Amino acid sequence: MVFKVSILFLLLLMKEKIKNTATELFLNLGFKSVTMDDIAHEMGISKKTIYTHFNNKTALVSEVTSSLFCAISEGIDVICSVEKNSIEELYEIKRFVLEHLKNEKTSPLYQLQKYYPKIYATLKKRQLELMQDCVVENLTRGVNSGMYRENINVDFVSRIYFVGVVGIKDNDLFPTNKFPMDVLMDEFLEYHLRGICTPKGLETLEKCITTNQLS
Fold it and tell me: Which residues bind DNA (predicted)?
């Protein structure tokens, strides 16, 4: 019994190592360009070992993206639980997401949409559900605290924010050589907030922009 448990643990550990290595390679080099051979070479194992845990590359991409989504979701929940002011919260979430996605150097969501449309569609649905709750709560708290204008349509603004976050990841519209993702996210966030902030909120926004530029 102990032997079987040990074998199971080792198998789970290997699967996790494969997933972690694949995640690093996918985010740094792109979902399209990284092959199963690349992952095996990086780990110093045979490709057959990878196929023991994942039937094909699509299955591996699916699990990697799902794990990334869960990790980011949990991190965002922690940030929101602190209940900073609404503007600071959005900047903190932006920093956290970019760190986990390696500043999106390879435009991972855009590559998913192009090469793995089914996985992308599932992820987009989960992302919408997560962001809808998070952004609606952020907007409501911002209005109540006087940071955001009272007359904003919370449901509309939350959805247009989601469209913007997804849209700026379109590499055809915003090529990374012209629009680095960290700069693009800063520009979009400022654009979003200037449209809904009160004078009080704009003061906080200016402080966040200055702090962000210095960091």
Answer: 35-54
